[in-house]
Amino acid sequence: MPSYQVGHQIGERLAADGHSWVNLRFMTLPMLAHEVVGAELSRRKLKQITGAASLFLVEKIFRELKGEGELRYLGDLEISSGVLRAFRRSITALRLAGLEAKNLDAGKFIGEDKGREVILLLEKYEEALERGRFVDLAGVYRLALEMLDTKGMREGKDRKQYLSLQDQTIGGLEKRFLEKLAGDRLILVPQGPVFGLERPRRY
Question: What percentage of the chain has pLDDT greater than the value 90?
Fold first, then answer.
């Protein structure tokens, strides 16, 4: 489910139509991932970084790189909450897509200087997470995929069915995690037609 609230609305609609949903359990992808890795995070003494802490970390890295003269393209930007949130969104998007600093080529960006500095920000962010023994959401998905691979958790002890809205926007690590967890038990639930418009397929 995109959110627990959406799942609850679906449950209410089922109940209103006279259908039982006692065996349905509404969960988001992060919730499913935490079910897989919860004990392992504790065993490895890892903590998931909060939104506020990740924003602080991005600010710290940006200030340090700017102070060291490492940012020629981004260095003229004034430090503000809007700029820092934009950097964090970019870092989060890259990591959820399954990308790491070592996989990126500055020459593939619109501007090579910009690409180099984005990669540098991402590299410093990854290093800071490792030093602090933190994981972000992308790290949670990576660990979940690792556990599903190495411990054969995909088969599990049950044969639960996993339902996902067909047009839910997911990709990268999220999609890999869901497909590996559910396997052939993944059911894509279509939504009602939108008359006069073609509904885009996002999954």
Answer: 56
